[in-house]
Amino acid sequence: MFFRRQSNQVSPLQQAIEQGHLPTCNGVSLTVDELAFYQTHGKRWQPPAKSLWSQLNGAHLSPRKGRGMTFSEVRQYQAGDDVRQIDWRVTARTGKVHTKLFSEERERPVVLFLDLTPSLFSGTKLLLKSVQLCHLASLLCWVAVANKDRVGAVIRTQNRLIELRPSASKGAVYQLLNAIVSAHNHQLEPNTSMSAEQHLTFAQQKPSEVKTQAFDALSNLCRKGSEVVLISDFSTATTQDFDTVKRLSQHNRVRAIQIYDPLEIAECNGKGLQRVQGKADEMTLNMSSDRTRSAIKQAYLNHHSRLQYELASFGIHLSQISSGAPLLQQILERQS
């Protein structure tokens, strides 16, 4: 749902495009050129100077840790070495303090889980949540390739599951972006007939089968030590989903990004009675009522708190991105 604006006003979307915060887009459907816009920003957030994740997490965290570092050698301790890396066994054996050295693990597979189910196809201010999700996915792809990592994806729609194995080539990234655009736009036109080639690419399945198989497909695609990024609104996350994510986190570094719309936290320009689409039915909300706005915001906060708690128990950090502001602008604001 989109609220109407005065005809003589410049729309927030057009303003963001003119300021260079967004590619040329309509906020609803996607094009490959629109997603390719983020290629120029791929080298902008390379660790350790400007880690994209440190911006999303709101803190300057180590860009490479855990399975991202591999043991290199042991040498005698030098002034300035991290005391936490002292090798006490070698120190005891030789009688001299020795330090472990580590090197960055290169070409780490990055696997994106992209949720393009119906709850993401809503928006009240700037973009559909699904469009913002795809913009973020594109940026992550280009950041991964610039960092010489392989990138792949599992794309979940209402009745399709698309798997793309990790690759570091620029051509593979464009193949992934094409798959994202096709899957996204097909959801906007559910009655559009598909070509034979598309039928081969997108295996038709029942929505219930797609939901139960999505995280299993993600597990099969990820080898140990992968970087897994879950991007969704997590509105339909189940206990079974969390169990699969828990297993994934035992052998991979898993991150989660929640996409939300300003309406979900009761931030919107609409006043009076507004018709919105819920999970199952269309409903009318009185957006002039403080009680209504408070109830909407509290429902979202309860859902977010539960999600944050579940993921934190697995050591997974949850970030948030709004569909109501340009992606680059949100990231840069967190940097300042």
Automatic annotation (TrEMBL):
Domain DUF58: 73-304
Protein name (database record): DUF58 domain-containing protein
Species: Vibrio qingdaonensis
Lineage of source species: Bacteria, Pseudomonadati, Pseudomonadota, Gammaproteobacteria, Vibrionales
